[in-house]
Amino acid sequence: MPDIVKETISLKDGRSIIIETGELAKQADGSAIVRLDDTMLLATVVVSKETKNETNFLPLTVDYREKYSAGGKIPGGFIKREGRPSDEEILTMRLVDRVLRPTFPEWFKKEIQIMISLLSYDKTVLPDGLAGLAASTALSVAGVPFNGPISEIRIIRSKRNFIINPSLDQLKEADIDLIVGASMNSIIMIEGEMKEIKESEFLNTIIHAHEEIQSQIEAQIRLSKKLSNNSSLFFEDQKSKKYNPENESLKEELFSFSYEKIEKIYSNSLDKKTRFIQEKIILNNFKKKFLTEEKIEKEEAIIDQFYEEIKKKVTRNLILEKGIRLDGRTSKQIRPIWSVVDYLPGVHGSALFSRGETQSLTTVTLGSSLDANKIDNVVMENQEKFYLHYNFPPFSTGEIRPIRGVSRREIGHGNLAQRALKNIIPNNPYTIRVVSDILESNGSSSMATVCAASLALMDAGISIKNPVSGIAMGLFMENEKKIIISDIIGEEDHFGDLDFKITGTQYGITACQMDVKKTQGLTYDLLNQILKQALEGRIFILRKMLEVLPEYRKKMKPNAPKIYTFNIPKDFIGSVIGTGGKVIQEIQSCTNTNILIEEKGDFGYIEIIGHDDEKIEKAIDRIKQITFVPELGKIYKAKVKSIKDFGAFVEIAKGVEGLLHISEIGWKRLNRIEEELHIGDIVDVKFMGMDEKNKKMKLSRKVLLPRPGKKND
195 by DSSP, 3-state: which? Predict the structure, then answer.
């Protein structure tokens, strides 16, 4: 029997999370199962035995997959097995990666693969809030050196109450929805969406989440103490082995040669491309002066790594010691902003937003329900009628690289921008697709996307509740010194200690994404200061946006589709469609429209899409004729359309005609209809029911007229 070790985490709502190890995947360096109700995840960790000192990054791979069997499903489509990861799975991978990566020591360069699998899914628990806990537990079991344990939870606020690891149904009523990752002493990662909440409410949510995370970390520590694990012997301290003496000498030579030169470049407020060229010149001059061709070829990777460290040191010293940013701005200053709306004449809405050297060209395309983004995975089945795609081509940073599908980064940035905007989109019949193409990037491209998308939606005539702007905040910390900077550029993100993206309207925050590079030092007080400075920046950017387009356009573009929706009685769905679709196809053909019919409860939901108002109106009339049901005893204003010997045909509703028999026109006996009625007359008639024999309407004008008294004999 396997030696199973367990720990229990008690949640405040009475539920319990169980973490355990020792039963599954024992060939991995570490494995753990996390269970809440009937949702179960397995996390495994495998670490290479070789060290990759030539890399200047941690070779960490996080993989998260949801088994369809976990939810009692079989994959749809032609291939009946799990394939490439879905966007939702990729987003969960990123959440786990971002909270773990900063916790590893700089000297640790072994390749690590963390695999997390959803084995069982209970609809009362969303699994993404447990993935970070599972990964951290597996790392702790493996004895991998990292500044952990950590944990990650999903926290929502619904009806003013906090809920930890909620269900999908509870999520629908939330005004705050965050994934928070933290160590015992510091917040490391935040991502989520909100419905225009205040900064104080946001901070209070983070504090509440951290308290829950700390109890989960304590459980991991208790679990680790129960294990007699020697696997940490594989992960000997490499700090002293990172560089050999020869490399240390090379580093000192490079530092002496380049530090002051780089500092001079960085102090001159140069643009990104010029800085890059001059950095290259300095490095190439060093190689030519001090190194042989053989040495360059042999040590190129380590030289580049040393050079990055020197650039980082220069950047940090300039900001922390001299208050100098690479582009010459003050800590709170926003880069120059200019925007244009209606930039592309052939689309439904467009905006070009530029902030410094970051530029987004964003388009809005309007469609019908058929264009909704269909999500069908283990956790949910849904149709998104608002979605946003973010593209980051290599030319935006002056690079050359092959295009091999959508990157994880593009999916993550697009999701952040979508969440920033989704709650300000009104209920409307359109499916809205927003596409942001980043044409130039030097930091904060996802926030440029939010600003451009907000303007493009307004340009398209979408009546958004409030326009949204976004800003990326940075932080540099050294000992007791801390400097917060607004609207960070690429180097400030790369060399800084924090990247905190915040979006919102003038009334409150709509989304955020925060990543720290240091796992210590980010206090609640400091977080509050960052939020306040971000608010100033957001409002400044928003005002610049509104100078271009103060409010949404009252009319949509002429080339935008027009959509009309209404309900019909469910019993008439078949009549509108007709045998083999004959009726609906004929209506579509005659009116040049597309008509969608969907059964919703007791009604049939009709959606008519076209470009010509008159033809759409004609299609509506045709359907209303088919589905019109007069009310028994109701009086209708009827128009005389034609006259026959036996009565008059009158229109009681648009396109709906019935016979007003000669005997029902009045109490007086008529020889000719024209004695009382003429074509075009408007008269009141009462619906008396349907004729049992011919199923025609029975109408009467006579019953509405005073009955004459009896004549004297």
Answer: strand
